[in-house]
Amino acid sequence: MSLFPEIRLIPVSRLTQGSKWRVQAMRSYSAPQLLWITRGQGRITVGGVTRGYGSHNAIFIPAHTMHSFEVTSQVYGTAVMFSAGSDTDLPETPHHLRIRDGMVQGEFTILLESLQRELEGRKPAAKRAIQHHAGLISVWLERRIADAEETITTPESARRLAAGFAALVEKEFRTDKSVSGYAATLGVTPTHLTRVCKQTCGRTASELLSERKISEARRLLADTRAPVNQIATALGYASPAYFTRVFHDRTGQSPLTFRRAV
Length: 262
Prior knowledge:
Blueprint: E1 7-11, H1 21-24, E2 33-39, E3 42-46, E4 49-53, E5 57-61, E6 67-69, E7 76-82, E8 95-98, H2 102-120, H3 126-147, H4 156-172, H5 179-186, H6 190-201, H7 205-223, H8 228-234, H9 240-251, H10 255-261
Antiparallel strand pairs: 1-7, 2-5, 2-7, 3-4, 3-6, 5-8
Helix pairs in contact: 2-3, 4-6, 4-7, 7-10, 8-9
Protein backbone atom coordinates (compact mmCIF):
# COMPACT_ATOMS: atom_id res chain seq x y z
CA MET A 1 0.00 0.00 0.00
CA SER A 2 1.24 3.52 -0.82
CA LEU A 3 2.48 5.64 2.05
CA PHE A 4 0.60 8.52 0.45
CA PRO A 5 -2.84 7.24 -0.58
CA GLU A 6 -4.22 10.72 -1.32
CA ILE A 7 -2.96 10.68 -4.91
CA ARG A 8 -1.04 8.43 -7.30
CA LEU A 9 0.66 9.00 -10.65
CA ILE A 10 0.52 6.10 -13.10
CA PRO A 11 2.03 6.11 -16.61
CA VAL A 12 -0.67 5.54 -19.20
CA SER A 13 1.47 2.73 -20.67
CA ARG A 14 1.03 0.78 -17.41
CA LEU A 15 -2.76 0.97 -17.43
CA THR A 16 -3.07 -1.83 -19.98
CA GLN A 17 -0.23 -4.11 -18.90
CA GLY A 18 -1.56 -7.64 -18.53
CA SER A 19 -5.24 -6.66 -18.56
CA LYS A 20 -6.09 -4.47 -21.52
CA TRP A 21 -9.78 -5.18 -20.99
CA ARG A 22 -9.67 -3.27 -17.69
CA VAL A 23 -9.09 -0.03 -19.60
CA GLN A 24 -11.06 -0.58 -22.78
CA ALA A 25 -14.21 -1.99 -21.18
CA MET A 26 -16.94 0.23 -19.74
CA ARG A 27 -16.24 0.72 -16.04
CA SER A 28 -15.99 3.33 -13.29
CA TYR A 29 -13.72 4.05 -10.35
CA SER A 30 -14.65 5.06 -6.83
CA ALA A 31 -12.22 7.99 -7.04
CA PRO A 32 -11.69 10.85 -9.54
CA GLN A 33 -8.93 10.70 -12.12
CA LEU A 34 -7.24 13.09 -14.52
CA LEU A 35 -5.69 11.76 -17.71
CA TRP A 36 -2.87 13.84 -19.18
CA ILE A 37 -2.00 12.67 -22.70
CA THR A 38 1.37 13.85 -23.98
CA ARG A 39 1.64 11.79 -27.17
CA GLY A 40 -0.55 9.60 -29.35
CA GLN A 41 -4.24 9.57 -30.08
CA GLY A 42 -7.37 7.50 -29.69
CA ARG A 43 -10.96 7.70 -28.54
CA ILE A 44 -12.45 7.89 -25.08
CA THR A 45 -16.05 7.56 -23.94
CA VAL A 46 -17.04 9.40 -20.78
CA GLY A 47 -20.60 9.72 -19.54
CA GLY A 48 -22.08 8.38 -22.75
CA VAL A 49 -20.17 10.74 -25.08
CA THR A 50 -17.24 9.59 -27.26
CA ARG A 51 -14.55 12.00 -28.38
CA GLY A 52 -11.16 11.70 -29.99
CA TYR A 53 -8.13 12.64 -27.89
CA GLY A 54 -4.60 13.61 -28.87
CA SER A 55 -1.41 15.14 -27.55
CA HIS A 56 -1.75 17.56 -24.65
CA ASN A 57 -5.32 16.65 -23.82
CA ALA A 58 -6.45 16.72 -20.19
CA ILE A 59 -9.47 14.53 -19.46
CA PHE A 60 -11.08 14.72 -16.03
CA ILE A 61 -13.34 11.83 -14.99
CA PRO A 62 -15.28 12.19 -11.71
CA ALA A 63 -15.75 9.26 -9.35
CA HIS A 64 -18.45 6.73 -10.29
CA THR A 65 -18.55 7.95 -13.92
CA MET A 66 -18.92 5.26 -16.58
CA HIS A 67 -16.14 5.42 -19.16
CA SER A 68 -13.93 3.45 -21.52
CA PHE A 69 -10.52 4.38 -22.87
CA GLU A 70 -9.05 3.31 -26.20
CA VAL A 71 -5.28 3.21 -25.77
CA THR A 72 -2.44 1.77 -27.84
CA SER A 73 1.29 1.31 -27.27
CA GLN A 74 1.81 4.64 -29.06
CA VAL A 75 -0.07 6.60 -26.39
CA TYR A 76 1.98 8.22 -23.62
CA GLY A 77 0.95 10.28 -20.65
CA THR A 78 0.06 10.16 -16.98
CA ALA A 79 -3.04 9.15 -15.07
CA VAL A 80 -3.46 11.23 -11.91
CA MET A 81 -5.49 9.05 -9.53
CA PHE A 82 -7.00 10.92 -6.59
CA SER A 83 -8.25 9.09 -3.50
CA ALA A 84 -11.94 8.46 -2.87
CA GLY A 85 -11.82 10.53 0.32
CA SER A 86 -9.60 13.31 -1.00
CA ASP A 87 -10.20 16.83 0.34
CA THR A 88 -8.98 18.29 -2.96
CA ASP A 89 -11.59 20.48 -4.67
CA LEU A 90 -12.39 18.86 -8.00
CA PRO A 91 -15.17 19.30 -10.58
CA GLU A 92 -18.35 17.27 -10.28
CA THR A 93 -18.72 16.81 -14.04
CA PRO A 94 -16.39 15.36 -16.74
CA HIS A 95 -14.20 17.68 -18.81
CA HIS A 96 -12.13 17.11 -21.94
CA LEU A 97 -9.64 19.92 -22.47
CA ARG A 98 -7.30 20.45 -25.40
CA ILE A 99 -4.31 22.41 -24.06
CA ARG A 100 -2.72 24.30 -26.95
CA ASP A 101 -0.66 26.89 -25.03
CA GLY A 102 2.91 25.62 -24.63
CA MET A 103 3.44 27.56 -21.40
CA VAL A 104 0.34 26.00 -19.86
CA GLN A 105 1.48 22.54 -20.97
CA GLY A 106 4.87 23.15 -19.33
CA GLU A 107 3.21 24.43 -16.17
CA PHE A 108 1.34 21.17 -15.73
CA THR A 109 4.41 19.07 -16.51
CA ILE A 110 6.30 20.87 -13.73
CA LEU A 111 3.41 20.22 -11.31
CA LEU A 112 3.50 16.49 -12.08
CA GLU A 113 7.28 16.28 -11.83
CA SER A 114 7.27 18.07 -8.47
CA LEU A 115 4.54 15.79 -7.17
CA GLN A 116 6.42 12.71 -8.39
CA ARG A 117 9.54 13.78 -6.48
CA GLU A 118 7.53 14.10 -3.27
CA LEU A 119 5.89 10.71 -3.80
CA GLU A 120 9.23 9.01 -4.38
CA GLY A 121 11.16 10.78 -1.64
CA ARG A 122 11.04 10.56 2.12
CA LYS A 123 11.43 14.23 2.95
CA PRO A 124 10.02 15.82 6.10
CA ALA A 125 6.39 16.98 5.74
CA ALA A 126 6.07 15.01 2.49
CA LYS A 127 2.42 14.16 3.14
CA ARG A 128 1.51 17.83 3.55
CA ALA A 129 3.52 18.74 0.44
CA ILE A 130 1.67 16.10 -1.56
CA GLN A 131 -1.67 17.46 -0.42
CA HIS A 132 -0.62 20.95 -1.53
CA HIS A 133 0.56 19.67 -4.91
CA ALA A 134 -2.79 17.92 -5.36
CA GLY A 135 -4.46 21.25 -4.59
CA LEU A 136 -2.33 23.03 -7.19
CA ILE A 137 -3.32 20.41 -9.78
CA SER A 138 -6.99 21.08 -8.99
CA VAL A 139 -6.38 24.84 -9.37
CA TRP A 140 -4.67 24.25 -12.72
CA LEU A 141 -7.64 22.18 -13.85
CA GLU A 142 -10.20 24.75 -12.66
CA ARG A 143 -8.41 27.52 -14.55
CA ARG A 144 -8.16 25.48 -17.72
CA ILE A 145 -11.89 24.72 -17.54
CA ALA A 146 -12.59 28.44 -17.18
CA ASP A 147 -10.37 29.21 -20.20
CA ALA A 148 -11.63 26.36 -22.39
CA GLU A 149 -13.31 26.99 -25.70
CA GLU A 150 -16.44 24.97 -26.37
CA THR A 151 -15.42 22.38 -28.98
CA ILE A 152 -18.13 19.76 -28.51
CA THR A 153 -20.42 19.66 -31.53
CA THR A 154 -23.02 17.27 -30.10
CA PRO A 155 -26.25 19.15 -29.21
CA GLU A 156 -26.56 19.93 -25.51
CA SER A 157 -29.86 18.05 -25.18
CA ALA A 158 -28.29 14.87 -26.60
CA ARG A 159 -25.28 15.15 -24.30
CA ARG A 160 -27.53 15.65 -21.26
CA LEU A 161 -29.62 12.60 -22.12
CA ALA A 162 -26.56 10.42 -22.81
CA ALA A 163 -24.94 11.55 -19.57
CA GLY A 164 -28.16 10.89 -17.67
CA PHE A 165 -28.41 7.41 -19.12
CA ALA A 166 -24.75 6.63 -18.35
CA ALA A 167 -25.15 7.84 -14.76
CA LEU A 168 -28.31 5.77 -14.33
CA VAL A 169 -26.65 2.66 -15.77
CA GLU A 170 -23.75 3.11 -13.36
CA LYS A 171 -26.19 3.10 -10.46
CA GLU A 172 -28.45 0.26 -11.59
CA PHE A 173 -26.55 -2.05 -13.97
CA ARG A 174 -26.53 -4.79 -11.32
CA THR A 175 -30.31 -5.14 -11.66
CA ASP A 176 -32.39 -6.76 -14.42
CA LYS A 177 -33.56 -3.35 -15.65
CA SER A 178 -33.89 -3.21 -19.43
CA VAL A 179 -33.27 -0.34 -21.85
CA SER A 180 -37.03 0.23 -21.89
CA GLY A 181 -36.93 0.64 -18.12
CA TYR A 182 -34.09 3.16 -18.31
CA ALA A 183 -35.88 5.08 -21.08
CA ALA A 184 -39.06 5.24 -18.99
CA THR A 185 -37.09 6.60 -16.02
CA LEU A 186 -35.54 9.25 -18.27
CA GLY A 187 -38.92 10.14 -19.80
CA VAL A 188 -38.08 9.19 -23.39
CA THR A 189 -38.82 6.28 -25.72
CA PRO A 190 -36.33 3.42 -26.08
CA THR A 191 -35.97 4.32 -29.76
CA HIS A 192 -35.04 7.92 -28.97
CA LEU A 193 -32.60 6.85 -26.24
CA THR A 194 -30.90 4.41 -28.60
CA ARG A 195 -30.69 7.03 -31.36
CA VAL A 196 -29.09 9.57 -29.01
CA CYS A 197 -26.56 7.05 -27.65
CA LYS A 198 -25.64 6.12 -31.20
CA GLN A 199 -25.14 9.80 -31.98
CA THR A 200 -23.05 10.63 -28.91
CA CYS A 201 -20.82 7.56 -28.61
CA GLY A 202 -21.42 5.28 -31.60
CA ARG A 203 -23.05 2.57 -29.46
CA THR A 204 -26.68 1.73 -28.91
CA ALA A 205 -28.20 1.99 -25.45
CA SER A 206 -28.32 -1.80 -25.14
CA GLU A 207 -24.64 -2.07 -26.13
CA LEU A 208 -23.64 0.42 -23.44
CA LEU A 209 -25.66 -1.44 -20.82
CA SER A 210 -24.29 -4.82 -21.89
CA GLU A 211 -20.69 -3.53 -21.95
CA ARG A 212 -21.00 -2.23 -18.39
CA LYS A 213 -22.42 -5.54 -17.13
CA ILE A 214 -19.78 -7.61 -18.90
CA SER A 215 -17.00 -5.34 -17.65
CA GLU A 216 -18.12 -5.94 -14.08
CA ALA A 217 -18.46 -9.67 -14.79
CA ARG A 218 -14.85 -9.76 -16.00
CA ARG A 219 -13.70 -7.94 -12.87
CA LEU A 220 -15.55 -10.37 -10.59
CA LEU A 221 -14.25 -13.38 -12.49
CA ALA A 222 -10.66 -12.08 -12.39
CA ASP A 223 -10.53 -10.63 -8.89
CA THR A 224 -12.85 -12.86 -6.83
CA ARG A 225 -13.66 -16.54 -6.43
CA ALA A 226 -17.41 -16.02 -6.66
CA PRO A 227 -19.13 -18.85 -8.57
CA VAL A 228 -20.47 -18.08 -12.03
CA ASN A 229 -24.08 -18.56 -10.93
CA GLN A 230 -23.55 -16.07 -8.09
CA ILE A 231 -22.06 -13.51 -10.49
CA ALA A 232 -24.97 -13.98 -12.88
CA THR A 233 -27.46 -13.31 -10.09
CA ALA A 234 -25.49 -10.33 -8.78
CA LEU A 235 -25.60 -8.70 -12.22
CA GLY A 236 -29.31 -9.24 -12.79
CA TYR A 237 -29.16 -11.98 -15.42
CA ALA A 238 -32.19 -14.26 -15.62
CA SER A 239 -30.09 -17.42 -15.32
CA PRO A 240 -26.45 -18.58 -15.30
CA ALA A 241 -26.99 -20.12 -18.74
CA TYR A 242 -28.17 -16.81 -20.18
CA PHE A 243 -25.25 -14.99 -18.55
CA THR A 244 -22.80 -17.51 -20.01
CA ARG A 245 -24.30 -17.08 -23.47
CA VAL A 246 -24.15 -13.26 -23.31
CA PHE A 247 -20.60 -13.34 -21.91
CA HIS A 248 -19.44 -15.63 -24.70
CA ASP A 249 -21.10 -13.46 -27.34
CA ARG A 250 -19.32 -10.34 -26.00
CA THR A 251 -15.87 -11.81 -25.26
CA GLY A 252 -15.54 -14.97 -27.34
CA GLN A 253 -14.92 -16.99 -24.16
CA SER A 254 -17.02 -18.72 -21.55
CA PRO A 255 -16.82 -17.22 -18.03
CA LEU A 256 -14.74 -20.16 -16.76
CA THR A 257 -12.35 -20.03 -19.71
CA PHE A 258 -11.85 -16.32 -19.10
CA ARG A 259 -11.21 -16.90 -15.39
CA ARG A 260 -8.61 -19.57 -16.09
CA ALA A 261 -6.87 -17.31 -18.61
CA VAL A 262 -6.45 -14.43 -16.18
